[in-house]
Amino acid sequence: MRTRTSFLLGSLSAALVAFALTSPRVVAADKVDPAADAKAFQNFFFQKFPNVKHEDFVNGPYSMNDDMKRQWQEKEEFPPYEFALDAGKEMFSTPFKNGKTYADCFPNGGIGIRQNYPYFDTKEGKVVTLELALNRCREANGEAPYSYVKDEMASLTAYMAFTSRGKAMDIKIPDDPRALEAFENGKRYFYTRRGQLNFSCASCHVQSPGERIRAEILAPALGILNAMPIYRSEWSGMGTISRRFMTCNSQTRAVPLEPQADEYRDVEYFLSYVANGLPISGPGARP
C-alpha cells in the first residue's frame, strides 16, 4: 500500500498540471463559470481516453477495461440489483398511512426525473438531493425517514433511476449567487485532500481512472453518479450516493461526514452538473 500511495502522490502533480493546462477553469477558484468548468472537465476525460465512447463513461470501471466490461455485460443478463428494483417499485407505489404516495411529492409522479437531481432550491438556498427529497416526502406524509445508507433508500432510488435510464443528466444552476457558491463548494471539496492518506476525490477519479488500487479498477469521475445507486460485491448489497461518499472518506482514512451534510450535497451537485448530457445508467453494479 505504501508503494501504491507513493506512486499516486508522486504522479499527482504531473497529472494536475496537465489537467490545469487543458482545463484551467476547473481548478481556478477565483472565477465561477460552471458551463466552462463542465466543458473542460468532460474534455479532459475525452482526451485522456479517446477510445472510450462518451456515453460509456457512466459505466465506471467497465469503460476502462475490456475484460471487466465483458464480464459485467454477462452479469447484466441477471443483474445483482434486480431485487432492489422490485422492492423499490413496490415501495414507491405503496400508499402511506394517509393514502398518499411518493408520486404525490414529485413532478411527473416521480417517474423519469432522476436526471434532474440534485437541484438547487432557491427558497431554501441549498442543494436538494433525491435522497433528501424522498425523506422529506415521507416526513410530510407522517412517515419516519429512512436511513440514507441502507437498503430502503437504495431500493427507492434504484427504481427511480431505472425509470430515467438513457435520459441525459440535466442539472440546472439558477441565476443565484448561492447556487454558484454551492457549485464552487462542491468543486473545492472534490479537489481538497483529506484524511491520513492525504487524498482528494480527484486523486483517484481524475488522476488514476483505469488504474488498479489493490484489486479494484478506479472509475473515472465523469459520470460517476449517473450509475447510482449501485450494487457492490464488496458490500454484498446496494448502496446510495450517501453511502459511497462516506465510504470514500473512510478509504482515505478521513472522518466521514453525516449523510446529506452540506459538503456532500454540494459535491453531488458539482459532479452531477459536470456530467450534464451523459445518460443515466443507474442502478449500477460494481465489484
SSE order: HHHHHEEHHHHEEEEHHE
Total DSSP helices: 11
**Percentage of residues assigned to helices:** 40-55%
- Biggest beta sheet attributes: 3 strands, mixed
Number of strands: 7
User: Structural class of the helices, strands and pairings?
Assistant: mainly alpha
Shape: globular
Give the N-terminus to C-terminus distance in angstroms.
19 Å
Q: How are strands sequenced across the largest beta sheet? A: 6-5-7
Compute the CA-based radius of gyration.
18 Å
Strand residue content: 5-15%
What's the average pLDDT?
A: 90
Q: Segments where pLDDT lies below 50 for 5+ residues?
A: 1-29
Structural summary, described in words:
The structure is a single chain. With 287 residues, this protein is mainly alpha-helical. Helices cover 45% and strands 7% of the residues. The protein contains eleven helices and seven strands. The longest helix has 21 residues, at 2-22. The protein is globular. The two termini are 19 Å apart. The model is unreliable at 1-29 (pLDDT under 50).
